[in-house]
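User: quick one, sequence for these tokens?
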């Protein structure tokens, strides 16, 4: 048996903390939080129709129009008096370059007529990019 009593150069005490694993864990957590935070949250309660679709990324410049079950129209969270008021407000967005996309969130129990009136107001305002937001199928 050999016992080493003296201090060698290999037996130095490391006085530093290795932070590489901590940084790796923090970067992974940061990426997870950035991906899971919803980009846009709206406060108007609507039951969206369920449809199989591709995941869309909502950009901050997108215009969100919501139609609730009673047929009431909202631009973002602001209630609109009628489609003429909506069309007037959308004309400000239609002159932007590049033109923002209008996303219509229609309640599944709303009449097609109210969503059609919104679509007509968007067309009258001169907006060319229009999309409908639906819930993905649970299957």
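Assistant:
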């Amino acid at each position: 048996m050999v016992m080493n009593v003296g201090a060698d150069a290999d037996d130095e005490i490391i006085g530093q903390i290795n932070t590489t694993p901590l940084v790796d864990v923090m970067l992974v957590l940061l990426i997870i939080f950035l991906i899971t935070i919803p980009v846009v949250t709206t406060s108007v309660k609507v039951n969206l129709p369920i449809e199989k679709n591709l995941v869309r990324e909502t950009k901050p410049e997108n215009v969100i129009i919501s139609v609730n079950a009673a047929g009431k129209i909202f631009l973002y969270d602001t209630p609109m008096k009628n489609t003429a008021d909506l069309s007037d407000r959308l004309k400000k967005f239609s002159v932007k370059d590049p033109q923002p996309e209008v996303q219509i969130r229609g309640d599944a129990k709303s009449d097609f007529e109210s969503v059609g009136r919104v679509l007509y107001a968007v067309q009258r305002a001169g907006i060319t990019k229009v999309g409908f937001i639906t819930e993905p199928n649970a299957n």
